[in-house]
Structures are given as C-alpha cells and as structure tokens.
Amino acid sequence: MDEKRLQNIPLRNIHIHDQFWDKYIGLVESVILPFEWDLINDRVPGAEKSYCMQNFRVAGGLEKGTHQGTVFQDTDVAKWLEAAAYSLAKKPDQELEKTADAAIDLIIGAQEPDGYLNTYNTILGKGRFYDLFEGHELYTAGHMIEAAVAYAEATGKRKFVNSCAKLADYLCSVFGPEEGKIHGYPGHPEIELALYKLYKYTGKQDYLRLAQYFLDVRGQQPCYFLSESNYQNGTFIFKEFKDFGMDYCQADRPLAEQDKAEGHAVRAVYLYSGMADVAAETGDERMLRQCEMLWENIVRRKMYVTGSIGSAAYGERFTTDYDLPNNTNYSESCATIGLAMFSNRLFQITKDGKYMDVVELALYNTLLSGIALDGRHFFYVNPLECVPEVAEHNPTMRHVKTERQLWFGCACCPPNITRTLASMGNYMFHVGGNTAYLNLYLAGEIEAPLPEGTMRMTVEADYPATGRIRICLHPEKSRQDAEIALRLPAYSAGRYQLLVNGQRISVAKDDAGHEENRRGIDSGERAVYRKGYLYLNRRWQDGDLIELDLDVAFRFVYGNPKVRDDIGKVCIMRGPSVYCFEEADNGAYLAGCRIDTSAPICTEENPDLLGGTLCAVVSGSRIDYRSVGSDEPLYSAKRPVYQPCHLKAIPYACWNNRGKGEMQVWMREE
Amino acid sequence: MDEKRLQNIPLRNIHIHDQFWDKYIGLVESVILPFEWDLINDRVPGAEKSYCMQNFRVAGGLEKGTHQGTVFQDTDVAKWLEAAAYSLAKKPDQELEKTADAAIDLIIGAQEPDGYLNTYNTILGKGRFYDLFEGHELYTAGHMIEAAVAYAEATGKRKFVNSCAKLADYLCSVFGPEEGKIHGYPGHPEIELALYKLYKYTGKQDYLRLAQYFLDVRGQQPCYFLSESNYQNGTFIFKEFKDFGMDYCQADRPLAEQDKAEGHAVRAVYLYSGMADVAAETGDERMLRQCEMLWENIVRRKMYVTGSIGSAAYGERFTTDYDLPNNTNYSESCATIGLAMFSNRLFQITKDGKYMDVVELALYNTLLSGIALDGRHFFYVNPLECVPEVAEHNPTMRHVKTERQLWFGCACCPPNITRTLASMGNYMFHVGGNTAYLNLYLAGEIEAPLPEGTMRMTVEADYPATGRIRICLHPEKSRQDAEIALRLPAYSAGRYQLLVNGQRISVAKDDAGHEENRRGIDSGERAVYRKGYLYLNRRWQDGDLIELDLDVAFRFVYGNPKVRDDIGKVCIMRGPSVYCFEEADNGAYLAGCRIDTSAPICTEENPDLLGGTLCAVVSGSRIDYRSVGSDEPLYSAKRPVYQPCHLKAIPYACWNNRGKGEMQVWMREE
Questions:
Q1: What ipTM was estimated for this complex?
Q2: Is residue B207 part of a domain?
C-alpha cells in the first residue's frame, strides 16, 4: 500500500466546460435535478409513481397513509440529495438549497427519537432488522449518510449530517461483536463505505469500527441470514430470494475467502468499495490484496467492453468467468457506477492507472448509456445488442427496455447516474502530497490545493474526439515546486507525445514501467512513467504549457477468445469510447452485417447528429435481404448472399437517442 | 379437405425391428415402463418424489395424507397407462397388464360418484373448476381419457374407458353454451383431442360437441379467465401466471382470429391438434385452413432445425417470428411431441407429406434427445447449444439441465416420450381407402388391412444410416389391387431412385408436383408423385419388391438469414437427423471452431460409439487456445489465431450420453 491515499479536491475547485460532457453534466442543474425532484414527488405524468416523498410525510405523521414502493424507496431521495449537494458544492443555488433543506426537514421529521430512520419500517411497524437479508435498512441508512456528508461538505449546514450521525450512533449501539448486539450485517452492502465517509467527516472511530465489523462478520458460517425468521418461514419480501444462494449477497463465505466476484453485481462492487476504504484506512494489506484480486477477476473475466458488469438478469449478477452474453445481460447502470467507485478507490490507494482506465471506460460508456440526451429518460439495463422486436417478445429479455424510460418503480439508477454526473470532479482529479493527478481529460479549470500553493490549471481538450490535451498552469507562487501526474491511458501506451513549453520531454521508465517518448528533440528535462501515469516534476511558472497528445484513433478491438459470445466478432473504439451500430444509420438486420477489418476506419463528423458526434465508417458486407423471400424455408442448403456495404457507428453512450431500433456493439468480422 | 382422414392401423399389426429405433423402443417394455412405474410409486432412490400413485390412494381413501406434487400430477399416471396400453397392444404381457389393472382400480377408486376425477381437487376439496386458467382439471381429464381409450383398444377391457366416459359425461353436463353451464374452457388444452378420441371410440356425439364448444368459446372477449376468482384476487397457483397475458394460453382472441402460433408451446400444439381433429370431423374447412396457417407459422418461422419449438423458457413459449436462440431456448420434449401429433393429424387429413417431414424431424431429433440410451434419464429442455460451465452458472439458463435427470418434480416429459415411443406405429403408417402409406422408414413388418385383403409388408432399412429402403410385399390375395404410397422426404426430392421388381419406375407429376425419376430404364410402369408421396398403384403378387433409394448423404444446412442466431453458421444433417458436435469428440470451446463447407463431409462408422453410430467428420479450423494465456486481457487488438482441424459430429438425438460436456449444433462457417 502506498503511504497515503490520494484525496479529492473540493468540487467547487473543478469547473468543467467540456464539449462532450457538457451535454450531460450541463443538464444536471437545469433539467435532471428539477425533473427528478418532480418524479420523487409524483408530479410527472406518465412516469411510474415513486411515493418517495410521500413516504417521508407519512412516516413523519404529516400525512395519513401507508408505505408504498420498495423497502429501499428512501434511497432515491438520498441519492437526489447527494446529487443536489454536489451541484450546490459547485455552484450555489438558493432555490435548489431551499428545496433540499425542505426535503431534509421532511427526512428528519421521519426519524425516530433513537435515531432510527427508515420510512418502510417506521410506517409498517413490523420491527427493525429482522430481515437483514432483504430489508435494505442498512443500505438505506448508508445512502442517507452519504447524502448527509455530501450536503454538509457542500453547504456547511450540519443539521442533516448530525441527524445521520445519530442514526449511525444508533447502529453502533445495535450492531457489533459485543454480547447483546446483533451479529448480522447488510444483505445489500453500502453502509460500510458510508460509515467510512462519516468517520472521515466526523473523525469518530466508532463508525470505522462498525464498518470493519460488518466486513469481518460477513459470510461467517453458519450464515447469519439463514437464521432470520423470514428466511426460516419462507416469507420472503422478494419472492425470488428464496432461490438465491448466499453467494447472491457475498455471504457464502468470509470475505477473506472470496477471491472471485460473485453474486449481485451492485452489492459486490459497493461491498468491495467499502472493503477498499476500510483496508486503506486501517492499513489492512491482506484485505487490500483481496480487493485487488476481486477487481482483477472482474476486469479480466467478467466485464463488458463497455465497462458494465452483471451477465445475468436473474439475480442481477455475475455468472462465471468469460460468460458475457451481449443481449441477455443485465449490465445495470448502478453496477457500472459501483465499479467506477471501487476502481476510483483502488486508484486513490495504489496510484495505479489501470484502475482509472476502468473508471474511464465505465463513465464514458455505460454511465452515459443510462441517460438520454434529454436528461429525462433512463436505462437501468444496458445491453450490448438489442433487436427491439425480439427483446419485446422474448421474455428471456423481459428486463431489457428498448427505449429509455421516464422512471422506474425501482429507480435506483436514475439518481445514481445524477449523483455521479454531479461529482465527476471526484473521478477527474486527485491530489496527494505535492502531486496533482489529472485522471480524466475533460476540458475545464481546476484549482488544486497543493502544499506550496494553489495550482490553477486550464485544460483544453475535446477528448476523445481528439487526443490533443493542453494544460496551462498558473501556480500561486512563481517557480512553484509541484508534480503533475498525467494519466496515460493503456490504449495509448507507446503512442503519445509529451511537451512542456514546446519542448519534447523524454520519459524515463520506473522499475516496472515502460520507456517511451524518447524520439525527437530532447529538452533535457525528463518525465517519469509509473503505472499508467506520466509524472512531471519541476518548478512551474505562470503560463507553463503541457501538451499531451494521445492516440485516440479509431481501432478494432477483439474479445479474448474465451468470451464465446464475442468470437468471430470485432468492435470499434475511439480512446475509451466504445462505438455501436444503430438501425437508424444502417438499417435493420445488423446481425447480417460483417466488417472488413483490413480496410481503414474512416472518421465522419456529424455536427448535427446527437449534439455533435464523431462517427466511424467502415467497409464490410451484409446479407442481401431482398434475396430472402417471405416464403423461404427456415432451413435449406441455400447459402446467404452478401453484398459490399459501408456501415456507420456512433458512440455507445449515445445509442437509442433517435427512437427504437436495433443496436449492436460486436459485429461479425468478414 | 380430402374426402377421408387416413386411419391408423392397430399397433399389433406393426412390428418394428430397426437398428436405430430399437435402441429406444426396445427399452420401453424392458426398462422404461418398469422404471417409470417405480418412479410414480416413489421407489427410485435419488429421483425427485412424484407422489403420483400416493395421491390416488389418498383421494380414494386408502391412505391418509394430502395431495402432493403439481395440480396435474395425475397425468403422469395417465401417460404411463397410455404407454403401457400401446405396449400391450403390440405384445401381451400378463405382468404389465396386472400392474395396469391395479393402477386403473386405484384411479377409479379415486373417482367421485358423479364422475369427477382429479386427486388434487378431491383431496383438497377447494371446489371444482374455479381456476380453469391454472387448475389443469380439464387437461388432466384429457390425459385420463386418452389413456382409457388406448387401454380399451389394447386390451378390450372397458372398465377404465367406461369410468372416463362417466367423467366425460359429467363434463358435458357442466360445460357448454347452455344457461347454467360453465362457459369456460381449459387453460391447458388437451381435453379437446381426448374428447375427439372418446367420441371416435364410443360414437357419442356429445363428446365431439363439447370439444367443439371448448374451441368455439376459447378466447371470446371478455376473456373468461380474467373473471375467475384466483385471477381477480391475485392468488395464483403458479406465481408467474400473474405476469402472463392471455396469449400465454391462446385465449387473447377467438381461435378464428389466431393466425400465428403464440404462447405456451405445448398448450398451442395440443390445442391445434384438437382443432384439426374437430375440423376434419365436422368438415369445418375454415378451421382446417387455420390449422394449416398456424402450422405454417410454426414451421416457417418458429421451429428449430431439430424439430423443437418454444424459444423462451419464461412461459415455455413461442416468441416472435425467426427468434430462435440456441442456448436459452426451452424446446420442451412435450412440445416436440405435440408438434408431431399436430403434424401427423394434418397429414392424415390432407395427405401432404410436408407434415410428415416435420413429424420425422421431431421424432428423429428432439424426441430422442429427451431420453438417454439407458432409458432412465430424461431431458425436459433441449437446447441446441450447451456449455455446462455457463448453463450451470448463468441463471438465464437455469431451466437447462446439463445432464439428463432421473425424473422431474413436474414430469410431463418422460412418460410423454414413453407413450410416443410405444406408439411409433401411429406415425409410421396409415391407411386410407385402398392405399397404404409408408411414412417413416423403420425396418420391420406391417400387416395393413386394405379393402381387398391384408397387405403384409416387410421393410428392410437402416435409415438414415443408409437411404436404401426395401419393401417386400405379401398380399393376402394374388394380384391384389392396392396402392402403396411411399413418402419422399423433401430433402431427397429430385434425388432418389424407385424400382419395382428391379425395374426402374418413372414418376409422373401430378398437377402441383414435380416430375422425377425419368432417367434410366423405363419399365413402362409409372408412379405418381403427389405432395411428397410416390404412389404405386398396381396388382401386387407375393414377393413383389419395391426398392426406394433416398439420398441421405450428409449435407450442410443453413438457417434462413432472418434467424439471427444462425447467421454465419451451418449445421450438418443426414436425412432427417441433425448432427451435433460434442466436447467428448472435439474438446472444449466449440464456439471457437469453424467448418470449411467447401470440403466434403466424411462418414465415419463407429460401431462401438453410442450403440453404433454413423459420425460425420468435417474439415475446419479452430482457435488455438494454447496461445491464449490466462492473464490475457478481456479486450485487445489481438486477433485470435486459428489452426486447421478436423471435427466430428454425432446425431443430436444421442448427445449427452457420455457425461457432461459442451454441445453445439450450429457451427460457424469458415
């Protein structure tokens, strides 16, 4: 473990003005937050009812009624508040803050005197913590705590965080190794990482200890969940839970024995995020190695090329190594967000760029696939291949929506996407010691608080449309000593150019690293390459210019041949962006198309398409469906007839913004 | 509609001695019937409990207890009895008949005084016919009736059929258009075709009328099922039924408006079989056209190359046209049997060989895939592609078993396979007027009762290992006038040879037909080709020899390009037999293999393999997995490396008889 975990910098210090990301981030304040507020208040015609705010009013005694929605319905409000907090952190907004304050008052009004906070149980009064396997009480508490910490950090107002600290204190009094306490743990992890956040915010060790306890006790045998009354009686909240093994929620064995990612994907990556937090904080090297092993298992065996995870809908789960079907997969938006959270933590702890490569993949592809360009429609499930006619008629794909929805009865994903978009700064940028890490190349301005003074950096980029990154530095002090670490994405390794003030910089490899950028004029100055980052250590003057050119040229990507579903196929990427083929550009029967990978991938700029999109055009061939009569038999000796064609691809992130139609990422190779 | 429906001939007149089929049919009496008897009596260690006979003892008051198993558990006994009846029809067996008589006594002992017969409702006493959508009472009654008719025909004993006639009389008194009667119909069709059988056996018009009523009222709007109390109260017997639309059981619209096969595949084909029976009997041309349309929709849009149907597990149902996934499909054994039943009826009614082509496909492939060569293990679900590691870990395929099972809690398939094997004669052979139809070329002897005398025929064949069929005729009378109709399978159209007594016969086409077999020595005698049959009309002498040589050479078969799942792939067939590739012969990662279709398919005789099997060996190439390191990334620019190889295929019918392993029917084409 590296000596110190890298830190976020305040979101108010990061100003994003990026052509690609502004299409989404720009909507957070103006569209998404108000829209989602209306949704959780059940004011959007045509959307599924959420009952979120109503539940709080009922629990707080302001309204008569019962609880409606899922057991974890409260979390939609928490995630909305967390997103609002990030937004307020970046830019004050009295109206939004007033709304948030009112929501917080409603929440606190629903809190019980001892700190317990959960509208489902408060309203229904069936008792607390009797079904940790399914009940989501600790999961809900976790989201409340995350929101409260974010709100306190954003606004300085401590009312909400104090209320959540009271909730956490109550949890500390109920759970733990001591006799008389519950020796259980959450069916759905989340509280662990939240308690870590609260511990970091308050400094109170109890919260870290409880997080650690939840990790230590998890999966101990005999499994706690099996002893719970609902499980014993077969009276499940979610009927399918009776079929789920304990691996579904990572409780089939102690965490120390879990070396493969198993079960429900969101639970897994939320759990692993908490494990990484606690391991780093307590210096638990063994648990950290385990996190790394789990991450490797995901990224080398169980992740889609779009950075999504969860190969099966039933159980919304990981399946087995290399099993990555493209049209029946779950690939939940929340799971991708969790994978980004987990990877981001491992980067902060290890400073290894491979983790940030996965963050980038997840954010540039599946995170954005989850939201429409209008900011009002969402995907929960993100297939890599969709034929609407089939997905709508074959119940094997009944979890797949062929168009983004306004909202979902179980709406974990939309506000999760929102809070992630609102906090992109926490993925883009970190500081540690005298080093400022630039992870993601969104254009904008950053004021990085470094020990010798604030380093203001202006980033010019239109990534990944181009790989041209220009960083202009404005140190607080003249000749300020600082190290700037620039991420060199794995796809561009060995193919980049680095200049400072117009002078080419040669890069020395570290012990494990590569040696690159040696050619050309050598300024005498050196950068060091270490685990995916280029470290530039010098005394910076105002106006110093770093020029980094990455190779984002379109490329063909193959799946590992052990991924049966991708055999014989190829996909197209540009930098971290996966491209896909849509019916809107290419007509139907994409399955009948083949790509000629010996021909170049041409670039086509479409300023009017999807808010300005760089498209890829490839050569290939396709079955001539005019030669296939409607009376043709299903099976015959007739070989299909192919015709040459051109095919056009758009970023996967933008698919399904032009109505319903076929989409395919992996295309057959000619 | 042709003037008269073709008739079965008594099973005792058909003696099968066929190298290929004896492996299965030979087991019916010696292994399967005794084994299944033990199963339904819960005497097989390791098998799931059936409770079948126990339920009858409890319902009859012979034993204390409650009902166990599904609502239609009785049908396993009925199907066992039906199979036993066919077996007894072919060959008397005192022991078996004694066992069957005892079972029948138990059944009759469980019948209520008014004729009602159903252990589930008799034991639980919740009332009758209150949940036709799910309750399976009429389905169960149908199977009882089928068994009783078969038993009476086999043994001449009328006790069981009288008891079932009483049941049918009771149903006639309860259901019907008259005021005061129930205007409902079965959620699971079957009673329709059973009532038709009982009508044919007894001559009682009421049964035909009730069958017709069930067809007439089906799907009338508002749908009857929606008015039932369980549906209204949401108290479903099968929890998933609440998600099923009325199309699931072909009740979303009147039958006259149903022109595409929809919903649960078994229900559909059982229903269509009853429709065909009633249409033919009542001369309802419109309903018959509808049957033909539904059949065409299945066979041209929704049938696997193996003759199986049901593309989705959830709802065990048809999905949409051309949607035929190979590894997530249901392809239930019972559905294939139902398709054979439906097709057989349409053939009997229309004399069009295309229906018999489908019967042959279904019986030679999926029927046999459902049963192991030991006669004791069964598949319910018949995928065309299976990777055990994936099927066992990806819950999308949780319906797929990777090895045949001893029995199933819901065990509709095993006894259904048994009754079909035991009654193969009803598919092989029909008579109509002075014509004897040879449909399937199993070796054996047939005594066909024709108007001018019995025609004994000895069929020599080892089909489809060879296409050489030799039929020696022994008419009862000298120079007996008779027409022999020989099926010319579609795959051999234009490629066959027909001789009588060594003289080549030229074949005249009929109005719609082909003109073939013109080359070579012409005996002057002609055959007529009409809709898939070669009609030989002459005066036959004892010892006359018909020689038919079909072209069963291995061939490559392509899917219609609208079947996305088969694009770029090819499969191998020999006659009606689909071949498949198994890990046992070819190693793992069949998905990484490609076939060179420009190279010939070689024949390999394996006398020791699976009881003697003709294998196909093809050339091709496969990914060299030794070049794929375990640390290789999931996605990269690295193109897979292929190596030339040979691949061996065995009949799909015999797959999974050598332990668990990968299997694949459709292979990528090089």
A1: 0.95
A2: no
Q: Which residue has the tokens 């008719």?
A: B149
Residues A665 and A529 in one domain: no
Q: At what angle do helices B159-174 and B205-217 cross, to 10 degrees?
A: 50
Q: Give pLDDT tens digits for B159-214.
A: 999 999 999 999 999 999 999 999 999 999 999 999 999 999 999 999 999 999 99
Query: In terms of domains, do B567 and B644 share one?
Result: yes
| H or E segment to which residue B545 belongs | strand B544-550
Least confident of B121-130, B195-204, B511-520: B511-520
Q: Assess contact for A503 and A523: CB atoms under 8 A.
A: yes
Number of structural domains (chain B) is 2
The verdict on A622 and A522 lying in the same domain is no
Q: Which residue of A has its CA nearest to B330?
A: A396
- Give the tens place of pLDDT for each residue, B632-656: 999 999 999 999 999 999 999 999 9
Question: Which of B306, B386, B396, B558 is the mutation pick for testing A, counting most A CBs within 10 A?
Answer: B396
Answer whether residue B517 shows pLDDT above 70.
Answer: no
Question: Do A516 and A597 fall into the same domain?
Answer: no
Same domain, A567 and A496: no
Q: Which residues pair with B483 in a beta bridge?
A: B435, B537
Catalytic machinery residues of B:
316, 412
Beta bridge partners of A544: A473
- For B10, B448, B472, the CA distances from B475, given in Å and listed in that order, are 18, 9, 10
CA–CA dist B516, B493 (Å, integer): 8
Q: Which of A429, A444, A476 is the last residue of a domain?
A: A429
Cβ–Cβ under 8 Å, residues B249 and B269: no
Partner-chain residue, chosen from B325, B560, B632, that has the shortest CB–CB distance to A633: B560
Q: Compute the distance between CA of residue B47 and CA of residue B37 in angstroms, rounded to an integer.
A: 13
Q: Are residues B562 and B584 in the same domain?
A: yes
pTM of the predicted structure, to 2 decimals:
0.95
User: Which of A429, A506, A601, A552 minimizes the C-alpha distance to A7?
Assistant: A429
Strand order in the sheet with A429-432: A429-432, A435-438, A480-487, A533-540, A526-530, A506-509
Strands A642-651, A577-582: pairing is antiparallel
The answer to the question of residue A71 being in a domain is yes
Cβ neighbours of residue A256 under 8 Å, at least 6 residues apart?
A286, A287, A290
Cα angle for residues B176, B178, B182 (degrees, 5° grid)? 50
- Tokens standing for residue A503: 């002078």
Contacting A residues, span 597-636, partner chain B, CB-CB under 8 Å: 597, 623, 625, 628, 631-636
Contacting residues of A for B631, CB less than 8 Å apart: 300
Q: Which of A46, A61, A96 shows the shortest CA–CA distance to A418? A: A96
- Spatial distance between the Cα atoms of B625 and B514, rounded to a whole number of angstroms: 50
Compute the average pLDDT of residues B544-561. 98
Query: Residues A410, A301: one domain?
Result: yes
Instruction: Specify the DSSP element, H or E, that contains A361.
Output: helix A353-361
Whole-angstrom Cα distance, residue B195 to residue B112? 20
| Alpha-carbon distances, residue A435 vs A78, A345, A482, B391 (angstroms) | 33, 17, 6, 49
**What pLDDT is attached to residue B44?**
87
Residues A132 and A153 in one domain: yes
Q: What is the pLDDT of residue B301?
A: 97
**Which range marks the domain in which residue B471 is found?**
433-550
